[in-house]
Design a protein that fits this description.
Layout (H helix, E strand, L loop, with lengths): L9 H9 L12 E2 L11 H12 L12 H15 L8 E4 L2 H12 L5 E5 L5 H8 L3 E5 L9 H7 L5 E5 L11 H14 L2 E5 L25 E6 L12 E4 L2 H14 L5 H12 L4 H20 L6 E2 L7 E5 L6 H10 L2 E2 L1 E2 L10 E5 L4 H15 L4 H4 L2
Parallel strand pairs: 1-11, 3-4, 3-5, 5-6, 6-7
Antiparallel strand pairs: 2-8, 7-8, 9-10, 10-13, 12-13
The structure holds pyridoxal-5'-phosphate (PLP).
The site of pyridoxal-5'-phosphate has 13 residues, from helix 4.
C-alpha cells in the first residue's frame, strides 16, 4: 500500500537520504571535540567596528552582491595574493563560507553534471552538488594518503567541477604547488572548473608550506575561490564570507546568492571590512594557541595501540583511524558514551569510514579532559563489539 504522496521535494529527500551531517549537538556535559568553532572571542577591533556601524545607521538593506567598500577591499586583497587583478565585480559577499559554496556550486552545476570530490573532505560539497541535481563523485586518496592525480586525470573527462579543500577539513592536509599545478593542467585539458575552499588558510602550522590556489596562474580562468571569516577571526556566528570567481561565474553566483539569501547584514559587512583591512597580529597569535593545542592532541593520541593519524599541516582537527570493529558512526556513539563528542569519519565521504575527527579549537583544559575521555574510549571495547 502506498501512503499519501510526499509533500517534500525530491531534492530535499535526496539530501536527507545522503547527508551525513548531524542535525543535533550533544549536551553540555560532553567534551565538545566535535565542533569546528574556535572558542576565542572575536577580536575587539571587529566588534567595535560592528557597534560603530550600527550606531552610524547602517541598519538598512545592503547591496545584494555585497557592500561596495567590502567588495573593493576583498578584490584588492585577492589581487595582491594572486598577483593578478581581481575586480570588485568578481567578488560576492555571502553569509559565511557555506552560502559561498552553495551559491558557487548552484551557479555552475546542472542536473546530471559530475562533480569530482577528493575525500575525505567537508561534507557540504556533496550535499550542495545534490541540491543542484549534480552527481558527486568521491575520489579516494592515493596509497600515500595524498590526492590521486592519475585517478583525477582518468575521471576528469566530461566532469564539470573539482572541489579542493585546503588546509583540509578533516585531515588538515595541504596541497603542494606541484599538485595544484597538475590539477590546473588536468582541469584545463578537460574544461573543468576548480572550486578551492580555503577556510583555514590562516591556520597553517610552522612546519608546513601552504600554497593558495590563487597563486596558480594556470587556474586563473577557472578558479572559484570560497572564503569565510568564521575560522580566521573566530566569527562563526557572524555569518560572513565570500566567493570570488571569473566574471561570468561570479555574476551567476551573485544571482543564486540574491535569490536564496539576499543581501548580507549591512553592519556585519562593515565589521568584516575592519577585519580584512586592519593590520593585526590576532590571527598569528591564535595560530600560536592552535600550535600548542595541536601538540596536546597529538601527544595524547600518538601512543595508543591501533590508533593512527597524519599530523595536521593546518586547520584544527585530527582525523584518526581507530582499531575497533565499528562503523565510524558507531564509534562516534561509543566516544559519546565516554563523554566526548567526535565526528564520524563517514560524514567526510567514503574514505572517512574507519576514522573519527576531533577538533582542538576548545580551551586547553576542556581539550585535555576530552582527550582523556577519548583515550579511554579508544582503549575500551564497545558494547556493540562485545555483543555476539
Ligand atoms: C572547509 C570548510 N569550509 C566552509 C565551512 C563553512 O564555514 P561557515 O561557518 O563560514 O559557513 C567550514 C565549516 O566548518 C569548513 O570546515
Amino acid at each position: 500500500m502506498t501512503g499519501a504522496p510526499s509533500r517534500t521535494s525530491r531534492v530535499s529527500q535526496t539530501i536527507k537520504q545522503h547527508t551525513q551531517r548531524p542535525s543535533s549537538r550533544p549536551g553540555p556535559t560532553v567534551s565538545p571535540l566535535h565542533v569546528g568553532d574556535p572558542d576565542f572571542a572575536t577580536p575587539e577591533f571587529i566588534t567595535d567596528a560592528l557597534c560603530a556601524a550600527v550606531r552610524s545607521g547602517l541598519t538598512h538593506y545592503a547591496q545584494p552582491q555585497g557592500d561596495p567598500l567590502l567588495r573593493e577591499a576583498l578584490a584588492a586583497d585577492l589581487s595582491s595574493r594572486a598577483r593578478r587583478p581581481y575586480s570588485d565585480r568578481q567578488v560576492i559577499v555571502t553569509a559565511g563560507g557555506s552560502p559561498a559554496i552553495n551559491s558557487a556550486i548552484l551557479a555552475v552545476v546542472d542536473p546530471g553534471d559530475r562533480v569530482l570530490i577528493p575525500n575525505p573532505t567537508y561534507s557540504l560539497y556533496a550535499d550542495s552538488t545534490r541540491l543542484a541535481g549534480g552527481v558527486p563523485e568521491y575520489l579516494p586518496p592515493g596509497r600515500d594518503g595524498r590526492i590521486d592525480l592519475e585517478l583525477l586525470e582518468r575521471r576528469a573527462p566530461g566532469a564539470r567541477l573539482v572541489v579542493l579543500c585546503q588546509p583540509g577539513n578533516p585531515t588538515g592536509g595541504v596541497y603542494t604547488r606541484g599538485e595544484l599545478e597538475q590539477i590546473a593542467r588536468t582541469s584545463a585539458e578537460h574544461g573543468l572548473l576548480v572550486l578551492s575552499d580555503e577556510a583555514y588558510d590562516h591556520i597553517v602550522y610552522h612546519h608546513a608550506t601552504f600554497v593558495s590556489a590563487l597563486e596558480i596562474d594556470a587556474l586563473a580562468d577557472r578558479l572559484i575561490y570560497c572564503q569565510t571569516l568564521s575560522k580566521t577571526f573566530a566569527m562563526t556566528g557572524w555569518r560572513i564570507g565570500y566567493v570570488a570567481a571569473p566574471p561570468d561565474v561570479a555574476a551567476a553566483a551573485g544571482l543564486i546568492h540574491r535569490t536564496y539569501n539576499g543581501a548580507v547584514n549591512s553592519a556585519v559587512q562593515r565589521a568584516a571590512l575592519a577585519a580584512v583591512t586592519t593590520p593585526s597580529t590576532w590571527p598569528a597569535d591564535r595560530l600560536a594557541d592552535y600550535e600548542r593545542r595541536r601538540k596536546i592532541a597529538v601527544d595524547a593520541l600518538v601512543d595508543l595501540p591501533g590508533v593512527s593519524f597524519e599530523e595536521p599541516d593546518g586547520a584544527f582537527y585530527v582525523f584518526l583511524r581507530y582499531p575497533h570493529a565499528l562503523s565510524s558512526r558507531q564509534m562516534a556513539g561509543h566516544a559519546l558514551a565516554h563523554g566526548v563528542g567526535v565526528r564520524s569519519g563517514s560524514e567526510f565521504g567514503p574514505a572517512g569510514e574507519g576514522f573519527v575527527r576531533i577538533a582542538f579549537c576548545v580551551e586547553d583544559a576542556q581539550l585535555t579532559t576530552g582527550l582523556a575521555r577519548l583515550r579511554t574510549a579508544l582503549t575500551t571495547d564497545s558494547p556493540q563489539e562485545l555483543t555476539p
